[in-house]
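Example with several molecule types.
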Amino acid sequence: MGRDKKFSTQDLWQATHELIVETGYQGFSMSLLATKLHVSRAAIYKHYPNKEELLIEFMVEKIRYSVTLLSEIDFTQRFEEQLRDLLERMFQLKDLHQILGMASTIEDVSPIITEKKQILSTMHHKLYAPLNQLIDEGKKQGFIAPSRNNFLLLGFIFQTIDIPNHAGLPLDTFIAEIQDLILHGISNK
Amino acid sequence: MGRDKKFSTQDLWQATHELIVETGYQGFSMSLLATKLHVSRAAIYKHYPNKEELLIEFMVEKIRYSVTLLSEIDFTQRFEEQLRDLLERMFQLKDLHQILGMASTIEDVSPIITEKKQILSTMHHKLYAPLNQLIDEGKKQGFIAPSRNNFLLLGFIFQTIDIPNHAGLPLDTFIAEIQDLILHGISNK
DNA sequence: CGCCAAAGTAACACATGTGTAAATAATAAA
DNA sequence: TTTATTATTTACACATGTGTTACTTTGGCG
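Resulting structure tokens for the full complex:
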């Protein structure tokens, strides 16, 4: 029994995602979030005791989903297929990079925050694991020189996700172009 | 005559730079800036009528310096030398990307702001010009396939600047590695 | 010394944000 | 229809931020 909810958990995460991408961490406020959900601030406080715990929980959910998505890459394919698969999945997680970057700036207003920050950091490593595996696979299959530093390659690949599509290429073409740049750089041959 | 100043224009831009990188646009406040300068808020308001005009002026100064720095690249060198030169200069402008990204979110509280935003946008193009010239030069010298989209290459090169140096490589090595990745990608041969 | 001009501060009014407690609204079951 | 239960809102106290005005400090010059 009881009254119907005006917003679901899904609505909440959806609105949170939009708002934090639009305004950044410092610009994010419970007032703006409440407005977006057509609800009063207090209604949100019934679910989360403060802004920090709401945001950290949001990030944990986000990264959990992302880890799952990336861990489902098929590592039995040829290296190029693996890379393509990875890039497509990473493009689905477009804002993740930006969002997780804000995690460290969340204030430790309660021990729960500190704890979940720890969880976040652990899962962050799990997120990189498939990427690392892909790089190792590439080295094994002879596509990548073994002398290359994994951290650097990882950062390189991760960074390409944020290349702006100013040319307005269709997503498929765009991803293919990026894959080519990752593999062979800008050189002609 | 008159009393000695407690902070110079240089001090102001220095503190502004640090603060905006630390806290982002939304987190930037005149109180924090004043504290950083060991001065009262009102002292800053003697120079700039509001936060927005201070920040837009800061950005104009920043981009002016950057345009000059990048326009000084020697385009008579071999393509690889040009690229190396460019990368070294871009690394000096590390936070520029992040800072200029905030420009669009500055509120138009006065016509002066709107006007300077326009200037900023114009200079933004001037900033890309040397990069474009480098790409065209690369195409002419046969290093880059002419079919490549300039926007994409530009974004690609620009994005590599933000690769984190997690491996802790010395700057020289780091830049050399990145140059190699830009030229040839991760592939072995 | 005494004046005056530049530089700086304190204090005010106002706006926006946070988190809480008491009151209200909506729904299902008795 | 009454009641219990859950969801939501209103109103409050408090904190932080903005921009302005009146006042104070400091230093050179006649």
